[in-house]
Design brief:
75% of the residues lie in helices and 0% in strands. The chain folds into 3 domains: 187 residues, Growth Hormone, Chain: A (Up-down Bundle), CATH 1.20.1250.20; 182 residues, Growth Hormone, Chain: A, CATH 1.20.1250.20; 82 residues, Response regulator (Rossmann fold, 3-Layer(aba) Sandwich), CATH 3.40.50.2300. The protein is mostly helical.
């Protein structure tokens, strides 16, 4: 039995690494070309045409792909087929840009962006099935770090050699991604790894996802402003921005990934909000030298790294909310695109005002204030659903004596039998059904029966709602 588990673990780790490689290669093309990419800007500048229509068109197409993927990708096999087809199509679409601008440029870019959106959402199947819940923050951190490093390389080739050289390099990366994607598993039997008491999460628990999406939209408005306001202001420092632009982002993600688990990352979220505000204040007060660029870019991109890892990893653990992970990934990531799109449109609107720096800074500070208002209720909603997530101050991080006191004040305790009180305490402390069964020397079915009775007496439907009762006790004191 042990050898089978070891074999499964090795296979899962291998598939996990493979999925990260495919994601990194494919996502780097997305970042370097259609999604505000330097290749696209370099090509349009080369032919003296505006990139705005291309950029916003690709964002809308990407948004549509993310939202619609779950309607036609419902299992691992279809996810793999879509990924392979999307990579091939993107290679073909990229080749069109070796020719001078014509109508096929827009058609190819829109279609490729739509497929890329579908592809990223479909990758959620591999994210869910081959990375344990408590390790998903590391998987997505690895993917974001590697894809951004590759993006920097592509950008440097496009800027310092030629746009077409960068385009060719990005196509080469897509070709490598295709070779690795061929090795991705498609056997649906691999979608059911050994599990320690998985629980069904009711559809009603999608509320935190909606609130998270609202938060993502609001905070990523600043990313859109950055692209349209801060980026053009430092366009004369292309030699520096070509490699430094994403470096603070990568460093921030690397630091957050490797912090000790006991570190309370919830406080760092507030620090990151302050960094966003200070970046726009600095943009308004400082000049446009390379030193000013380093200050502004380090603040805004460092904060973006903290927050991107936050909501990407939250989405990773929320994949259990629905049997189709492409649905959760698509909804969550589309909120990011919507925020960037809104920020970009607002940036364009305020650009001709003559007070661009002041207007953008004031708007960004307003967004920061809204973010500060949204973060505490978001934290409270997420804490009971994802109690073990490293960004959240979970109930299990409360000192044992405090846990016991709160459980002792549990307002339905008198309605429960002695055994139900015992099981309720273990549920609140984060124990799975299997762990509870082993600790109490009973079967899992017995535990499930008791839990059903506990939920009925407490008038809740899930562990999350049970946790809410306990947290209400804590917050009321």
């Amino acid at each position: 039995m042990k050898s089978k588990l070891d074999k499964y673990t090795l296979k899962t780790m291998s598939n996990r690494r493979l999925s990260v490689v495919v994601f990194s290669l494919f996502f780097s093309w997305l970042l370097a070309f259609p999604f505000e990419g330097r290749i696209l800007y370099a090509l349009t500048d080369n032919y003296n045409i505006s990139a705005d229509s291309f950029v916003f068109g690709t964002m809308i197409a990407h948004f549509a792909g993310l939202l619609t993927c779950s309607f036609f990708v419902k299992n691992l096999r279809r996810a793999k087929r879509l990924i392979l087809f999307s990579i091939v199509f993107c290679i073909v679409a990229s080749s069109i840009f070796f020719r001078p601008p014509f109508i096929l440029w827009m058609m190819a870019l829109l279609t490729a962006s739509f497929l890329v959106g579908c592809c990223v959402a479909a990758w959620g199947f591999y994210f869910k099935h081959y990375t344990p819940k408590d390790e998903r923050i590391k998987t997505i951190a690895d993917g974001l770090i590697c894809s951004n490093l590759l993006m920097i390389l592509i950008n440097m080739v496009a800027i310092h050699i030629s746009p077409h050289a960068g385009l060719g390099f990005s196509m080469l990366i897509l070709g490598i991604a295709f070779l690795f994607a061929l090795r991705l598993p498609k056997d649906e039997e691999s979608e059911n790894p050994p599990s320690a008491g998985q629980e069904e999460i009711h559809a009603g628990k999608a509320g935190p996802l909606v609130f998270l999406c609202l938060f993502i939209v609001v905070i990523t408005i600043n990313s859109g402003l950055m692209y349209q306001v801060q980026g053009p202001a430092f366009a004369h420092l292309e030699w520096l921005s070509s490699w430094y632009w994403a470096l603070p982002y990568i460093v921030a993600i690397f630091i957050m990934r490797n912090l000790p688990r006991k570190t309370n990352r919830a406080y760092i979220l507030y620090v990151a909000i302050a960094m966003i505000g200070f970046s726009f204040i600095a943009f308004f007060l400082l000049g446009r030298s390379w030193v000013d660029y380093l200050i502004v870019n380090t603040l805004i991109l460092g904060a973006c790294g903290v927050y991107d890892l936050f909501w990407w990893s939250i989405l990773g653990e929320m994949l259990e909310l629905h049997e189709n992970p492409a649905k959760i990934m698509g909804i969550g990531l589309s909120a990011n695109i919507l925020g960037v799109l809104l920020g970009g449109l607002i940036g364009i609107m305020i650009s001709p005002a003559g007070q661009q720096n002041q207007n953008s800074s004031m708007l960004a500070l307003g967004v920061v204030c809204i973010t500060l208002v949204l973060l505490p209720p978001l934290h409270k909603r997420l804490i009971t659903l994802l109690k073990n997530h490293v960004y959240l101050t979970a109930i299990t991080e409360i000192p044992t004596q405090e846990q016991d006191r709160l459980i002792g004040e549990f307002n339905i305790k008198e309605k429960l039998t002695e055994r139900e009180v015992e099981i309720a305490a273990l549920i609140i402390k984060g124990k799975t059904y299997r762990m509870i069964a082993g600790e109490l020397h009973v079967s899992e079915n017995t535990v499930k029966t008791h839990v059903k009775n506990i939920y009925s007496k407490a008038e809740v439907q899930s562990r999350a709602e049970l946790m809410h009762l306990l947290l209400d006790i804590r917050f009321s004191h």
